Amino acid sequence: MAINCELYRKASIGTSLTDALDELVTNGSITPLLAVKVLMQFDKSMNEALQTKVKTKVSFKGHLHTYRYYDNTWTFLLEKANFKRESEIIQVDLVKIIACDAKGGR
User: Fold this and answer.
1) Which superfamily, per CATH, for 7-52?
2) What family is this protein classified in (predicted)?
């Protein structure tokens, strides 16, 4: 299953990688083409790791403030959400959940 989903680039690890690659391209250490290849591999590796390495199940509920479906991607904005993992419950005032359609072949 080939997925080119760039969701993970907006996480702190993705923005740090992007910043580092930008700096390397700017100072001439790597080519822009290599930077793009690294980002594409990052997307693939993150997706693969989350599918195969993460075994924890989490359930959540909250007030659905807004939702949107665009370009095979769901975006949900939840207010007063509760996330439950085993016996642990985490409460947050506002959370944005972005879900990429894995069958969309993005």
Assistant:
1) Transcription factor IIA gamma subunit, alpha-helical domain (1.10.287.190)
2) Belongs to the TFIIA subunit 2 family.
- Chain segment 35-78, per-residue pLDDT in tens: 999 999 998 898 888 889 988 889 999 999 999 998 888 899 99
Query: Would the pLDDT of 90 be above 80?
Result: yes
Predicted TM-score (pTM) above 0.85: no
Q: Which long-range contacts link 11-15 to residues 24+ away (Cβ below 8 Å)? A: 14/42, 14/46
Q: Report CA torsion sign: 47, 51, 55, 87.
A: positive
Residue for token pair 């924890």:
56
- 62: its two tokens: 């909250």
Q: What six digits make up the tokens of 89?
A: 């419950």
Fold of 59-101: TATA box binding Protein, subunit D; domain 2 (2.30.18)
